[in-house]
Amino acid sequence: MNAASPANPTGTTRTPRAGAPASRKLAWLPPAIVTGGLIPLVVLGLRASTGALGPNAVAEALNQLGLLALVLLVASLAATPLKLASGWTFPLRIRKALGLLAFFYACAHFLTYAVVDQGLDVRTIVEDITERPFILAGFVALLLLIPLAATSTARMLKRLGAARWKRLHRLAYVAAVLGVVHFFLRVKKDATEPLIYAALLALLFAVRIVSAVLHRRAASR
After folding, report:
1. N or C: which end of the chain has fewer CB within 10 A?
2. Distance of alpha carbon 196 from alpha carbon 119, whole angstroms
3. 41-46: Cβ within 8 A, 24+ apart
């Protein structure tokens, strides 16, 4: 029986749009990613309030916030290669949330340095940026993330056009490389961890390059 309703007064059967059920089914995913992504900040705040960050609490907070920013940025960049390699589409649904969380933690990392560590001493901050390469690399990475966050909405995508928007958002890879450089120059002895992130970025680059080459070959046939 196909009873008519106010939304369908003719009583005819409507074919649902392709992908609509899956879209509704995964609508919870981006908010869940954002909520889960903020948990480390809450934990860090609780540790700071109880004095559990150790004797150099500011340095520990800076390290944790910076690492979170890098992890989330690399995770956001992994969304498209993961889709290309596996065919899964859900990574694309959480890419924006991961990217914005990365920007949030990068801002928190810099503000902790500028406000808590340096007491908003502009002269010292400028000297650090111009004289210490690892701070310069991190600062430039943060600057590159600003236009990406500002243009992350569907409205800005429409305003810029898909081609220009994609070109702009390739800066995320540059920011990630600079983030790894910032991390590498920051550590004094064991560079194992930043090298792991460098390898992950290289893998993501490789997947994108191979996919682009295969796509061009297929289009030329």
Report:
1. N
2. 33
3. 41/68, 41/105, 41/108
Q: Are 152 and 100 in contact (CB under 8 A)?
A: yes
Q: Answer for the pair 105, 68: CB distance below 8 angstroms, yes or no.
A: yes
pTM: 0.86
Each residue's pLDDT tens digit, 112-159: 999 999 999 999 999 999 999 999 999 999 999 999 999 999 999 999
Of 48, 81, 77, give the one whose Cα is nearest residue 64: 48
Q: Residue 14's pLDDT is what?
A: 44
- Do residues 68 and 42 make contact, with C-beta atoms less than 8 angstroms apart? no
b/e 137-156 (16+ beta carbons within 10 angstroms → b): bbbbbbebbeebbebbeeee
Give the span between the Cα atoms of 23 and 92, in whole angstroms: 12
Q: Give the helix/strand (H/E) hosting 100.
A: helix 90-111
- Answer yes or no: are the C-beta atoms of 71 and 179 closer than 8 Å: no
Q: CB-based burial of residue 40 (10 Å sphere; 0-12 exposed, 13-18 middle, 19+ buried)?
A: middle
